[in-house]
Design a protein that fits this description.
The protein is an alpha+beta fold. Helix content is 40%, strand content 24%.
Length: 346
């Protein structure tokens, strides 16, 4: 039976909700932000995006890029309420729903005798229902697995609907930059590019043994080998809970002082807060990850009795474990902060 997977992604969700609530903002550049001394952008509307404003951008940079931007502090209770409406629409069409965030989900529409054309019709009905009931638009991608469905949903934003058929996969993936493949971040992209692998066609030209020689013997090389061929067997997991939410950053120049590391931590913790707020979770354990110039990696954690309430509490927790002894004689090449022991926000 052919799998039929839909990826639905709300268009500039938080910003669009704010435009709906404040129609006078519709033609102005706006960004929804995590406020604070090191505030960051959670999302921006399409007007602001045309100035280069995007998620995870520090607020001060958003102001520099777009001097007239309207900055709106996040209202997570409102966004969660609208998200519940949207998920109610999904549930009319399938019980197999994997939420990725408040504004994004995979749906499994697989059924005996159902075709990709049928799935396209259902996706179009979902878009229409969401627009009618919430006055918000979404983009949808339809294909035979999760990777292709998500790739499809991003091709014609906003309010687009794209279907990728199996016979189209090779041509579509051939020109896809390696950094756009699932699981490839800046560090992995750099390793691949250093070996002359820049696109899906380059990936597909390499054997599994070649990729393992570059990426090691873990899961990533086999995954990329399959994805380059349009193969993705991951199921849509209803009620899937994340194990952690975090951010890592690799630096062009190693950080040589504790003060430099602390400055970067403030930025990272603000970004982690934005991510856990977006996904509707809280957590009790902060994890700090450090990779040094000699290739060694250490982690430290701090657990509280109650969930951490924001970026400041997260920063305090990781700062407590960032002791001078931990950094003694080392330069930091990679810094990571994550939140674990997660549960859904009340």
């Amino acid at each position: 039976m052919q799998r039929l997977i839909v990826h639905v992604d709300m268009d500039a969700f938080y910003a669009s909700v704010e435009e709906r609530e404040q129609p006078e903002l519709a033609e102005r550049p706006i960004a929804v932000i995590v406020p604070g001394r090191r505030g960051i952008v959670m999302t921006a509307n399409y007007v602001a995006r045309s100035f280069g404003v995007h998620s995870a951008l520090p607020v001060y940079q958003a102001r520099l890029r777009c001097p007239g931007i309207v900055l709106i502090p996040q209202r997570m209770d409102l966004y969660r309420a609208v998200s519940a409406q949207i998920h109610g629409v999904f549930a009319r069409y399938t019980g197999i729903i994997e939420p990725l965030a408040l504004d994004e989900a995979y749906l499994d529409l697989t059924a005996e005798g159902r075709t990709l054309e049928d799935a396209e019709g259902i996706a179009r009905a979902i878009q229409a229902d969401i627009l009618t009931e919430t006055h918000l638009t979404c983009s949808a991608g339809v294909s035979v697995n999760k990777f292709l469905a998500k790739f499809a949903s991003g091709r014609h934003k906003p309010a687009g609907l794209t279907v990728i058929y199996p016979e189209e996969v090779d041509a579509l993936l051939a020109g896809l930059p390696v950094e756009d493949f699932y699981g490839v971040g800046p560090v992995i992209a750099g390793k691949l590019q250093a070996q002359g692998i820049h696109t899906g066609a380059d990936l597909r030209a390499r054997s599994l043994a070649d990729l393992q020689a570059i990426l090691g013997s873990g899961k990533l090389a086999p995954r990329l080998y399959d994805l380059a061929r349009g193969v993705d067997e991951r199921p849509v997991e209803a009620n899937r809970e994340p194990q952690s939410i975090g951010v890592e950053r690799t630096f062009d120049h190693d950080l040589s002082t504790r003060e430099a590391v602390l400055a970067e931590l403030l930025s990272l913790t603000a970004e982690v807060e934005a991510r856990w707020s977006k996904r509707g979770y809280v957590g009790r354990t902060a994890v700090l990850k450090l990779s040094f110039e000699d290739g060694t990696t250490v982690t430290r954690h701090r657990t509280r009795e109650q969930p951490l309430k924001g970026a400041n509490e997260l920063a305090q927790a990781v700062t407590e474990v960032l002791t001078p002894e931990l950094l003694a004689g080392h330069r930091v090449r990679l810094l990571g902060v994550s939140l674990v022991n997660l549960r859904a926000r009340d």
